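Hi all, posting the design record for the shared folder.

TITLE: backbone redesign
STEP: 1 of 1
STRUCTURE INPUT:
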């Protein structure tokens, strides 16, 4: 699972940033099936920043574990920008974590459509600002990855961690400005 690792592994940089800020993350992975959590827990001391990881792989599990809205799932489908944002927020909020991280997508080799081809991935990152501050945010990005199922999943997992780190770094800059 280290085929696409960088010289300074993203999982180490994420762990360091969250530890330094004393923040936590909860992960909900459909597309990546636990790879984000596996990367995060490769590092000793991960319990300081990883609150929990869920792998809700069906509509029923999304509703049962994260209380996602049935009508919203019907209207948009799991592999969509709005639902990926919902999953990231639900992971964050049900865990009472600082950050929620979600992955959805189509790893292949089958299952794609004209709108969501094989290799499509969505990554959602949700931040919990202090109560009453109106500073909570959610971002969702869409990606297209090439490769077989394993490559798509690993690339998406690493991209999710890069997206999380970018948001943590951005938040750190915003907090320093306040």
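Okay, here is what came back for every position:
SEQUENCE:
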């Amino acid at each position: 699972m280290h085929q696409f690792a960088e010289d300074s592994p993203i999982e180490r940089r994420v762990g360091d940033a969250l530890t330094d800020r004393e923040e936590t993350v909860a992960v909900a992975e459909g597309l990546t099936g636990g790879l984000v959590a596996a990367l995060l827990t490769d590092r000793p001391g991960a319990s300081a920043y990883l609150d929990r990881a869920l792998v809700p792989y069906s509509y029923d599990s999304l509703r049962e574990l994260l209380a996602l809205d049935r009508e919203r799932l019907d209207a948009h489908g799991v592999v969509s920008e709005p639902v990926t944002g919902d999953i990231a927020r639900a992971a964050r909020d049900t865990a009472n974590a600082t950050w929620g991280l979600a992955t959805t997508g189509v790893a292949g080799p089958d299952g794609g459509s004209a709108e969501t081809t094989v290799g499509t991935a969505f990554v959602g990152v949700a931040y919990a600002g202090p109560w009453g501050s109106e500073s909570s945010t959610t971002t969702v990005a869409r990606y297209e990855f090439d490769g077989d199922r394993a490559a798509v999943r690993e690339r998406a997992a690493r991209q999710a961690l890069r997206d999380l780190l970018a948001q943590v770094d951005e938040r750190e800059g915003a907090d320093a400005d306040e």
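COMMENT: The mean pLDDT is 94.
Let me know if anyone wants the other runs.
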